[in-house]
Amino acid sequence: MTGFFSSGAEDKRVFYKTDEEVELMRQANLIVSKTLGYVGTLLRPGITGAEIDKAAETFVRDHKGRPAFKGYHGFPATLCVSYNDIVVHGIPGKRAFKETDIVSVDCGVELEGFYGDAAFTFAFSKVEEQTMELLRVTYASLYKGIEQAVHGKRMGDISFAIQDYCERQHSYGIVRDLVGHGIGRSLHEDPEVPNYGRRGKGPLLMDGLALAIEPMVNMGVREVYQDSDGWTIHTRDRKPSAHYEHSVVVRKGKADILSTHEFVFDAVKNNDSLREVSPKN
Ligand code: MG
Ligand code: MG
Fold first, then answer.
1. What does the pLDDT look like over 161-199, one tens digit per residue?
2. Which of 114, 170, 199, 247 could serve as a FRET partner for 191 with CA atoms 20 to 30 Å apart?
3. pLDDT digits (tens, 9 = 90+) for 237-280
4. HSE-CB for 207 with a 13 A CA cutoff
């Protein structure tokens, strides 16, 4: 799940995690990552978001996790399921998926008081090539951002890296109304992690800072609007949007990525062009 820009996290303090806390977050993120992989095994044309969500909730609880989104400010489900022009925060519903769909699945898990949060936009088998390109660019931009999540850099270095990578190649719209976030004992902690910004600006990144980095990139305009359900965020021009997320910890030299998409890539075969843009390790 993403934060709303400047809406305020639950806890405005910035926490630096101890090694023990990071290990608990890694365990929470392992459940998140396995859940995304499990979702990948279920996704097929005809299945609905509600069906996937029900199975994912059972899966998370079977792994001793608590679905972190369920009940969060009244959100009714374990997953955010956001297809096609839905950017994020889609409520899993009764619409059956089609072979031409893309669908962002976002999962949060709380385990022993610590949170994990990650997302992956899946492509069904008949997605248009220009939409696959949107997915590849957005996915690669996540890792461009993560590359900057090192001790001594500033938030603007992450933000700029994501924005620059996406805008350099295409006239995509980087969503500004929603942002990544600090994470740890709360799902949303400070600082905010915008997907646009200026190099060298913003809060200093220091060892032990845990962040959910999550580019949201639209094929068309960057403007979005919220559905009357109070959650679902659509692109204004109804063109497709992509969303990928990892939870990471800022470290000296190189970020520690707590979540993984390896379970997703093991589960789904027609998303290999995405795997190729992720770093090897
Ligand atoms: Mg999320
Ligand atoms: Mg998030």
1. 999 999 998 999 999 999 999 999 999 999 999 999 999
2. 170
3. 999 999 999 999 999 999 999 999 999 999 997 777 788 887 76
4. 5
The answer to whether residue 281 sits within a structural domain is: no
pTM above threshold 0.90: yes
Backbone angles phi, psi at 209, to 5 degrees: -75, 125
Q: Is 259 a member of any domain?
A: yes
Which has the closest alpha carbon to 158: 117, 77, 213, 216?
A: 213
CATH code for the domain in which residue 168 is found: 3.90.230.10
The domain in which residue 19 lies consists of 3-275
Query: What residues pack around ion ligand 2 (CB closer than 5 A)?
Result: 1, 117, 212
Q: Which residues keep their CB under 5 angstroms from ion ligand 1?
A: 1, 106, 117, 119, 245
3-class SS of residue 110? strand
Q: What percentage of residues in the chain have a pLDDT greater than 90?
A: 89
Q: Which ligand is nearest to the CA of 195?
A: 2
Ligand nearest to the CA of 79: 1
Ligand 1 center from residue 272 Cα (angstroms): 22
Q: Identify the DSSP state of 2.
A: -
CA 230, CA 147: separation in Å to the nearest integer? 34
On the question of pLDDT at 6 being above 50, the answer is yes
Model pLDDT for residues 22-56, shown as the tens digit of each residue: 999 999 999 999 999 999 999 999 999 999 999 99
Question: Residue 171 to residues 62, 132, 166: CA-CA distances in angstroms?
Answer: 43, 15, 8
- Cα diameter, the chain: 48
